[in-house]
Amino acid sequence: MNILNKWILNFLLAFIMACSMTALYSPTPYSWLKIEIYHLPILFIIMFALTFFIAQDVRNSFKKVFKFDKRKDKRPIWQIGIGMIFYFAQVGLVEVFCRSLMGYELGGMPLYLVFAFMNAFLLTVIYEEIFYPRQSDSKTPNVHS
Fold first, then answer.
1. What would the mean pLDDT of 8-35 be, rounded to a whole number?
2. Degrees, nearest 5: CA angle 56-118-4
3. Where are the beta strands (DSSP E) in 57-104?
4. pTM for the structure as a whole
5. How far is it, in rounded angstroms, from Cα 75 to Cα 26?
6. Rounded to whole angstroms, what are the CA distances from 4 to 77, 110, 127, 131?
7. What is the DSSP letter of 141?
8. For the chain, first and last CA: distance in Å?
9. Are 82 and 75 in contact (CB under 8 A)?
10. Pairing verdict, β 40-41 and 109-110
11. For the segment 64-114, what is each residue's pLDDT rounded down to a tens digit?
C-alpha cells in the first residue's frame, strides 16, 4: 500500500505542476503553445512527462523544509499536504481542461474553487482511511490534559 500511496501522490503532484505551467502559458500569444491532440494540450503532455520524474524530489524537499522527519506526530502535516494536493489537482483540472466552468460564481467567489475545496476535504478523509494506518486510543495524544 505504501508504494501505491507514493505513486498516487507523485502522479497528482506531477499533474498539478503540469497544469500550473499549462495554465500559466496558455493565454500567451504564441500559437505553438496552444496545439492540442485529442483536446490535450501538447504543453501539458510535455510538462507532465518532465514533472513526473521530479515529483518525488519535490515531495522530499517539502518534507525537509517542514522538518517532517523530526516531528513526533506526522499526521497533521500529512493531512494538510494531501488535502492541498487534492485541491490544486482539481483547480488545475478546471483551469486547463474545463475553462468554461471558471465563469460561475457563488457570492463573488469562483464556484470551481468552492467545489474543489469541498471535494478535497472529502477526498482527504477517504484517502486517510485507506492509506493511513489507524492509531490506537493509547497512542493518540491527550489534548485536554
1. 86
2. 30
3. none
4. 0.79
5. 37
6. 20, 33, 12, 9
7. -
8. 35
9. no
10. unpaired
11. 887 777 877 666 555 668 888 999 999 999 999 988 888 888 888 899 999
